[in-house]
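User: Can you recover a sequence for this backbone? Please restate the input before giving your answer.

Assistant: Of course. Working from this structure:
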């Protein structure tokens, strides 16, 4: 039986990863989100210069600053994970090492995000 789809229709969405450009758009989206978040992060860090530990903990523990820092952490670590994933997929050609590096990349990004978020939440809840 003859198929009625065009050649373009047959190949759409059938790339090697079956996901098309999803990672590409996530990388671009997090890059755009990182622009204001990094600026806010730099301003926050500059405002901490010269302050003692108690004052820094008070600033970082305020709700608005804590939310900004949590958004910063989530966006930057997700952006980092996607970027390193692309590098690993492009330059590691053997399947075993590639899989091990991709797993390690994900675990590292999650560990960094959780440790950073835990620190901000500890300051925020003053525990």
């Amino acid at each position: 039986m003859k198929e009625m789809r065009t050649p373009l229709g047959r190949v759409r969405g059938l790339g090697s990863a079956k996901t098309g450009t999803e990672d590409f758009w996530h990388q671009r989206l997090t890059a755009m989100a990182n622009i204001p978040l990094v600026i806010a992060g730099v301003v926050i860090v500059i405002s901490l210069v010269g302050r003692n530990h108690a004052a820094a903990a008070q600033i970082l523990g305020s709700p608005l600053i804590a939310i900004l820092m949590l958004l910063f952490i989530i966006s930057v670590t997700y952006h980092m994970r996607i970027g390193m994933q692309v590098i690993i997929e492009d330059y590691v050609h053997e399947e075993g090492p590639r899989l091990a590096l991709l797993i390690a990349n994900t675990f590292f990004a999650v560990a960094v995000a959780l440790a950073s978020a835990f620190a901000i939440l500890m300051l925020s809840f003053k525990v």
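That completes the design. The longest helix spans residues 95-125.
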